[in-house]
Amino acid sequence: MELCRSLALLTGSLGLLCILIALSTDFWFVAVGPSFSLHSGIWPKFYTEVPAGYIHATQSLSILAALWGLLSVVFLIMSCIPSPSIRGYPLLTSSILAFAAAISAVVAMVVYTSERWNQPQHSQIQTFFSWSFYLGWVSAVLLLCTGSLSLAAHCSGPRPGYDTL
After folding, report:
1. Which residues contact residue 45 at a Cβ distance below 8 angstroms, ignoring those fewer than 6 apart?
2. Could you tell me if 16 and 97 are in contact, meaning their C-beta atoms sit under 8 angstroms apart?
3. Which parts of the chain span the membrane according to its record (predicted)?
4. Which of 12, 6, 19 is nearest to 138 (CA)?
5. Domains delineated in the chain
C-alpha cells in the first residue's frame, strides 16, 4: 500500500508539473519556412483575431485537468498524514480526481491534435508539433497512472472492522 501511495504521489506531482509547463509555454506548434520559423501555443500573443473554438476548448480542459490534478495530489498528501480528523476515503477521492484530470487532459489533447492535424498545408512550410504539446500528452498518461496507483493503494489498504473500533 505504501509503495503504491508513494508512486501515486510521485506520478501525480510529475503529471501536475507537466500540465502546468505545457499550459504556460507556447511551443505547441512550430512552422518552419525557407526564411522564417514560428511557434505558437494555446495562449495567443496578439489579439487581432478571435482564437478558434478548439483553442478555447483546449485551454479550458487543460486548466480543469491541472486543477483536478492539484486536488488529487492534495488528497494523496492528506492520505499520508495519520490524523483522526481526516476521515473518509482520501485515496479513493484522489483516484477519482486523478482519473477526471486524465480524462480532461486526454480530451483537450485530442481536440487540439485533431484540429491542428486537419489544417491545410503549404508546400514550402513544414509544420509539426513541439515539446509543449508532447508534455500535455505525458501529463495525461502520468495522471492516468496516478489514478490507477491510488486506486490500488485504496483497495490494498486496511478495511474498517470491529478490531479498529
Report:
1. 26
2. no
3. 7-33, 53-77, 89-111, 131-152
4. 19
5. 2-27+53-157 (1.20.140.150)
Q: Digits of tens for pLDDT over the chain (165 positions)?
A: 789 999 999 999 999 999 999 999 988 888 888 887 777 888 877 666 666 788 889 999 999 999 999 999 999 998 888 766 566 688 899 999 999 999 999 999 999 998 877 777 777 778 888 899 999 999 999 999 999 999 999 888 766 554 444
Q: What is the pLDDT of residues 58-75, one digit of tens each?
A: 999 999 999 999 999 999
- In terms of phi and psi (left: phi > 0; alpha: psi -120 to 50; beta: otherwise), the region of 98 is alpha
Residue type, 146: T
> Cα 57 from chain centroid?
14
Q: Report the predicted TM-score, pTM, of the whole model to 2 decimal places.
A: 0.85
DSSP-assigned states of every residue in 128-157: EE-HHHHHHHHHHHHHHHHHHHHHHHHHHS
Residues 95 and 150 sit within 8 Å (Cβ to Cβ): yes
Per the CB < 8 A criterion, the answer to whether 43 and 58 are in contact is no
**Cα(76)–Cα(91) distance, rounded to whole angstroms?**
6
> 32: which 3 cell numbers?
518552419
